[in-house]
Amino acid sequence: MWKKHLNVYMPSKEGKLCPTLPQCTFTTSAENIHTADAVIFENSQLPLTYLESEMPQTRSQHQYWIWLISECPNYLTINLNSYSAVFNWTITYRPDSDVSGAWGSQHLVYKRLKGADLDPNTDYSVGKTKLAVWFISKCSSRAHRILYAQELLKHLHVDIFGKCGKIVCDKQDFQCTVRHIRQYKFYLAFENMKCKQYITEKFWRHALGNNVVPVVLGAPKEDYELLTPPNSFIHVDDFESPKALADYLKLLNKDTEMYNSYFKWKTNPPKNIPVDDGVWCNLCRKLVGICPNTRKMYTNLDKWYRGENNDECEPVNGTYQEVHFTTDD
After folding, report:
1. What structural domains and CATH numbers belong to the chain?
2. Residue 249 in 3-state DSSP?
3. Using 50, 70 and 90 to split pLDDT, how confident is the model at 9?
4. Which band of pLDDT confidence, cut at 50, 70 and 90, is reported for residue 80?
5. Phi, psi of 186 (to 5 degrees)
6. Cα-flanking dihedrals φ and ψ of residue 92, to 5°?
7. DSSP states along 77-114
8. Number of other CB atoms surrounding residue 298 within 10 Å
9. What are the φ and ψ backbone dihedral angles of 187, each rounded to 5 degrees?
10. How would you classify the pairing of strands 130-135 and 158-161?
11. Phi, psi dihedral angles at 200 (to 5 degrees)
12. CA–CA distance from 284 to each of 96, 190, 211 (Å)?
């Protein structure tokens, strides 16, 4: 890995990180930069243009340079046009990346199921004494989710934690976050941007990972239907207004059978799910299985990432303003 970036997305340690492929070793040592089979360049470590970068001036013709980014195009911090013909592969949240860097997947979710998860009679409402929760750290009033939430809060009590609400957990203390989330029936998995196939840890880790039903806003509904377990979520687009959504959540809160229907997917795993062993094993598997003398180069990475007509994400409008929510305890 080029430079060491202390980002949650990057490996927390070096060495052999994929048990099934022990020949694959990760390192941040500059001594290995010219002998490595692949070099990963994390987007936030790159300057605006390629000419400003400190990237190696030469590389082996057999070495793969990989661009890694976990955010959507609207949060891009570099001029991709200046990085033309630099990268061979991509690791992003998108399924059409060379290596899957998605925040989660059906394969990983079903792989982790055990015990009560597989029992069709499990009541997932037990122990959940509160209705809805939202952890949010980016508070721009230009974001679609802020406008929607402001209207939703007129009709539904939602506990809001994080930078935009009440601080109850250190950002790095995930166990604290887990303890809070598991008290609730619903988690607002509202993405910071409406982008195709952009489904982050809000859905996979915060909601599904804690047996809480995600209420989603972001990618189109068909993307959730394609990429996530069936009937595992509630999409805001199914409701004519935030009030209609609020009324539905209140109905589910009173009807245990209806609420538990959002967990039936656990007992009926689909067949032929694409294999996903996590981003680093996905990368190792691709490197080990690569055919000799086959090589690609992204000559227009910007077009690929943003879309033919910059249509990967919905545009945002309005003047930037920080929003802070206050709710009763």
Report:
1. 1-102+276-329 (no CATH), 106-267 (3.40.50.11660)
2. helix
3. very low
4. very high
5. -130, 145
6. -140, 180
7. -S-GGGGTTT-SEEEESSTTSSEE--S--HHHHHHT--
8. 21
9. -125, 125
10. parallel
11. -105, -165
12. 17, 32, 31
> Bridge partners of 67?
41, 90
Q: Got the DSSP string for 112-125?
A: T--GGGG-TT--TT
- Dihedral of alpha carbons 77, 80, 86, 90, sign: positive
Task: Name the one residue in this structure whose structure tokens are 């990760």.
Answer: 26
- 292, two tokens: 């000799």
For 59, 136, 146, 200, the CA distances from 191, given in Å and listed in that order, are 38, 9, 10, 7
Residue 22, pLDDT above cutoff 60: yes
3-state helix, strand and coil shares in percent for the chain, rounded to the nearest 5: 30, 15, 55
Per-residue model confidence (pLDDT) at position 6 = 40
Q: Which residue is it, tokens 């990967």?
A: 312
**Tokens 């930069």 map to which residue?**
33
More confident residue, 47 or 323: 47
DSSP conformation class of 204 = I
- DSSP strand pairing (184-190 vs 213-217): parallel
C-alpha to C-alpha distance for 36 and 185, rounded to whole angstroms: 47
